[in-house]
């Protein structure tokens, strides 16, 4: 019996998860991954750890090694870019980026995990030397060298999201003067509600980061290399620019063949199928179902791609799967110098983008009982809950503290996924031990506060 030939485009989270699960689950499959890049496959979300010398080696900061696939009977080709799909013939055009030669490869099933590419700001000077993207193996090498380059004194970071915050922290700790810039008025404003971004703002400025918010970039200044970033208000000196101003789906090559949304995302049905027969899509290039929003929206996370991959593999041989992809919550975490936070679901910004009405509640307390002094680790803790104003269904939330309470973010994620209410969370039965918590847990108290109950 001939094997079912499955071609996977892209070797990142969704691509390699699909390959491993296919090879583990089915015997009669021939699985091949095509990756346009040279290195298979750098984990960009681990870049800060690499830049801070907190990894075993740069080559280890990866999702998998090719031999993880080949040892199971699969095939991995780096430096091979899939450039076109011929759905009638069920074949893809694959270009060897080293030799320039193109071949036609047939498939029975095709999985698209083409990902995203960093946004290039369309302003004068965007092609100057010294403007870096914080993504991928090659950029990681260049950024690492820049942290110890004494000629680089001023670093401008464009974009105050997760990647921008990481870059700002890395270069501040490396002794550089960092200016963090964004069009919005709050750092991490697309991820956290205002009570938590207020804490983040104070932490950044206390560590010496200069904030240039509510700013639009007019141009990059310089001759051959960048020397500054010009906004409507002033020009900020910059010997190096880290551009973390978002990403766009890597889907231009699919235009006219695969249906795309107006923003260029691959349009999939509830079963992660495209308009082409036997062609599936996953990862950052699609809009997955958001459980709290009840509709598709961008959720660019490795955890999302892996869940999508597992779903596709489980149902790849069903014309119409028995169940649709159940969706995701969108949970993530980050450190901002001395603070750590975890967030899940919707916040005021993301809810507004998808037209979901929400209410919010902010709660501040201490980690442990009042008789435990700060010197013994009783630090401040902050929470934010986002919920339906009528039903009280929890739609999102976040926790933040100098003590690592990020595991509480998983509780919020579970509450969002299972559509719990404030009332459910207010009385949920969590453990108590005074060395860790209090009789009413932090999230109990946060929900009780949102319901207007007196503070315990």
UniProtKB/TrEMBL annotation:
A Pfam cross-reference name: Pyr_redox_2
Start and end residues of each FAD/NAD(P)-binding domain: 5-308
Coiled-coil regions, chain positions: none
Keyword vocabulary terms for this entry: FAD, Flavoprotein, Oxidoreductase, Redox-active center
SUPFAM superfamilies, per database record: FAD/NAD(P)-binding domain, FAD/NAD-linked reductases, dimerisation (C-terminal) domain
Requisite cofactors: FAD
Gene3D superfamilies documented for this protein: 3.30.390.30, FAD/NAD(P)-binding domain
GO molecular function: oxidoreductase activity
Protein name (database record): FAD-dependent oxidoreductase
Native organism: Furfurilactobacillus milii
């Amino acid at each position: 019996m001939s094997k079912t030939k499955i071609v996977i485009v892209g070797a990142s989270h969704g691509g390699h998860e699909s390959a491993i699960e296919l090879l583990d689950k089915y015997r009669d499959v021939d699985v091949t991954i095509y990756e346009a890049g040279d290195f298979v496959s750098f984990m960009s979300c681990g870049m800060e750890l690499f830049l801070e010398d907190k990894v075993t080696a740069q080559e280890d900061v990866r999702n998998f090694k090719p031999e993880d696939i080949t040892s199971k009977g699969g095939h991995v080709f780096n430096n091979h870019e899939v450039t076109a799909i011929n759905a009638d013939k069920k074949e893809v055009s694959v270009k060897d980026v080293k030799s320039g030669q193109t071949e036609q490869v047939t498939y029975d099933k095709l999985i698209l995990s083409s990902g995203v590419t960093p946004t290039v700001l369309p302003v004068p000077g965007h092609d100057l030397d010294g403007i870096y993207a914080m993504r991928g193996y090659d950029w990681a090498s260049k950024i690492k060298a820049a942290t110890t380059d004494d000629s680089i004194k001023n670093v401008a970071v464009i974009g105050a999201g997760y990647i921008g915050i990481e870059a700002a922290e890395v270069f501040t700790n490396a002794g550089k003067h960092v200016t963090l810039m964004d069009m919005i008025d709050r750092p991490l404003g697309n991820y956290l509600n205002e009570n938590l971004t207020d804490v983040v703002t104070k932490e950044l400025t206390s560590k010496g980061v200069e904030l240039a918010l509510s700013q639009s970039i007019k141009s990059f200044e310089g001759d051959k290399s960048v020397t500054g970033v010009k906004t409507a208000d002033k020009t900020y000196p910059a010997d190096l620019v880290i551009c973390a101003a978002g990403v766009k789906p890597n889907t231009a090559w699919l235009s006219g063949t695969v249906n795309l949304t107006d923003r260029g995302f691959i349009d999939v049905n509830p079963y992660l199928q495209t308009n082409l027969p036997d062609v599936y899509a996953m990862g950052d290039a699609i809009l997955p179902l958001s459980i709290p929003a009840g509709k598709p929206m961008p959720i660019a996370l490795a955890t999302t791609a892996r869940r999508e991959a597992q779903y596709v593999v489980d149902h790849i041989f069903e014309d119409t799967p028995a169940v649709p992809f159940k969706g995701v919550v969108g949970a993530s975490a980050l450190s901002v110098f001395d603070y750590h936070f975890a967030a899940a679901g919707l916040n005021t910004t993301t809810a507004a983008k998808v037209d979901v009405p929400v209410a919010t509640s902010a709660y501040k307390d201490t980690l442990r009982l009042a008789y435990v002094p700060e010197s013994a680790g009783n630090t401040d803790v902050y929470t934010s809950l986002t919920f339906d104003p009528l039903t009280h269904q929890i739609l999102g939330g976040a926790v933040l503290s100098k003590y690592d309470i990020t595991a509480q973010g998983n509780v919020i994620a579970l509450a969002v996924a299972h559509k719990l209410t404030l009332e459910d969370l207010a009385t949920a039965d969590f453990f108590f031990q005074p060395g860790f918590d209090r009789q009413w847990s932090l999230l109990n108290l946060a929900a009780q506060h949102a319901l207007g109950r007196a503070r315990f």
